[in-house]
Amino acid sequence: MTGVAQLLVNGVALGAAYALVALGFVLVLNATSAVNFAQGDLVMAGGFLAVALAGLIPLPGILLLPLVAALMAALGLLVSLLAYLPLRHRPPVSVFISTIAVGIILQNGATLLFGPEPKAAPPLFGGGTLEIAGLLVPKQSLAVVAVAGLLILGQHWLFARTQLGRRLRATAQDPEMARACGIPVTAMVAATFALGAALAGAAGLLLSNQFFVTPTSGSGLILKAYIAVTIGGWGSVPGAVAGALLIAAFEVLVSATLSYSAATAALYLALLAILAVRPQGLFGEAARSRA
Amino acid sequence: MSARKSTLFAAAFAAALSSAAGSAAAADLDIPVLVPVTGFLALEGTSQRNGAVLAIREAPEGVTVRSEVIDTGTSPEGAVTALERASGRGTPTAVAASMLGTQMLAMLPLADEYGIPLVTVSGTASITERGNPWVFRFFPGDGVTKTAHARYVAEELGKRRPAVIYQTTAYGQSGQAHLRDAFGKLGVEPVFEEGVDPGIRDMLPVLTKAMAANPDVLVLHLHSGPTALFVRQATAMNPGVPIVAGSAMHQPSTAALLEPAELRGVCAETSASPVSGGSPEMERFTAEYRTAFGTEPDAFALGQYDGIRMVLDAAAKGADTPEAVRDALAKGTYRGLAMTYHSDGRGNMAHSAVIVCYDGSSRVPAVVKRYDVAP
Lengths: 291, 375
Fold this sequence. Notes:
Distance between the termini of chain A: 49 Å
Order of helices and strands of chain B: HEEHEEHEHEEHEHEHEHEHEHHHEEEE
Largest sheet of chain A: 2 strands, antiparallel
Shape of chain A: globular
Helix content of chain B: 40-55%
Mean pLDDT of chain B: 90
Mean pLDDT of chain A: 86
Order of helices and strands of chain A: HHHHEEHHHHHHH
Radius of gyration of chain B: 23 Å
Low-confidence stretches of chain B: 1-25
Helix content of chain A: over 70%
Number of helices of chain A: 11
Low-confidence stretches of chain A: none
Largest sheet of chain B: 7 strands, mixed
Number of strands of chain A: 2
Oligomer: heterodimer
Shape of chain B: globular
Structural class of chain B: alpha/beta
């Protein structure tokens, strides 16, 4: 039982970081109906940005976090200006391809700037392991869960309680009506990309300390985010978080009882089963129409 | 012919001879570097590129080398395109060819058709098993390194119950097969074996299962990032058994991901460890590499450096065509920095491996055991 608990402790930390990736993905999806396939590479970029900043300013990760998020928000803004806004009236596949292109540019840019070696950002508070109720819990895992939780709650607060959040939601639900109501839709879309990239940056910093960062490490993450969002329900923020935690726990437990290969196969089988029974995902609405 | 005319003729003939001799000594070579510097093998490929570039920069006096680095990416077609492009302006004298086995397999037929020696540090066994006379491997294959790996575990550490964790890539599966074979010859049966995808971020599940099999040593054959991840998580969980890792662990960039204390007692197999020093020549190489590239060299860089140095050495002795270089590599012996190289008749040039161990006080390992395997 202790073994399972120990595995779940790790699974929760991993799931929390996956959730941040998935959240950024859902944000852009909700605001634009576009799938941002560069989201995983934005996480990678955030990881390398944290590594670079740590080289310039030797501070603990928690103090670098706001700086990384702010710089990544600027990058997200740039992505929206170059890869989404000029193509928004074109067929959806144009945006699909342009975000893939952004991802490849980020990967190769990271290789040029940082080289191919795996790198690690500084820990949020410090390294080491705590023993809690017989479980060995890395301090970084606790910090990851805490910071990810705060960011998720912060995002919920932003959308539910602020004027900006209401405008963002209005833009997501019906851009034409939002525009008619005087909401600057283009600015809202750009803000969404910025917010999504800021979350990706935070995830990058959190992940790159524990799991390291390489120019190609974002590729696997986007797949996990995609699965999390599909399981949770497309467009559902709580669904994305739940989906991310579920797949992390699922992976960890099946890997420990069977094998990693079995876990991967089982994950995709479970995805197919969920889609067969609930095509809208676990938290999605049964029917959804988009403007 | 008058005496004066005879003298002029003799002088002109002597000058012509001298000029011909001079052009033979001043070889003009074309050695493109076709390696993966982007994609999942970029770390190893960049080391390979750096080793080749450094060797070319240090070409012997009288040897002029024209070279170009072309990124092959990680696809077979990328490698073939790069070789076609490099051959577009004439047949290269030799090529520093990708260390990725699938790319080498794609390049081999073309090298055979065009007659180009491929100098590589690829570990994939089959590239030298196809009877292609144009391929030369300056890194020990799995048959050499995994034998050393298993022998160190069984003979030096006296362990009989290894848990083997390997990568699910072609690299990992080849290593696992050779490890199993090597352990079998030593009468050792692994108590646990499992493949891990390179994208896996949590090593605790495999560590938990491995420890449930009650091993007396953890044997890794993983890429760089997963190796560091495993060592870190294993250290945190304190499994109480030693770790003997694959060659990725000896790479300075892998060790840089871990604190020295996390590395205490961890060992690894490799062909050489340049940062560990050992000879003035090795220390000179390491210093020049650091100056040139601002990073630490590993065994892949050193293997490719030695390989290209052997080509240049042959050229300095008059081998300035692809055929002559091929013959020199196939029949000659070269004392490189990592070891002495000579072909086993199939292009396998490297027949030594070493074990390095970290003492917990630094990220520089010490060479603790050398294994020379008769070809």
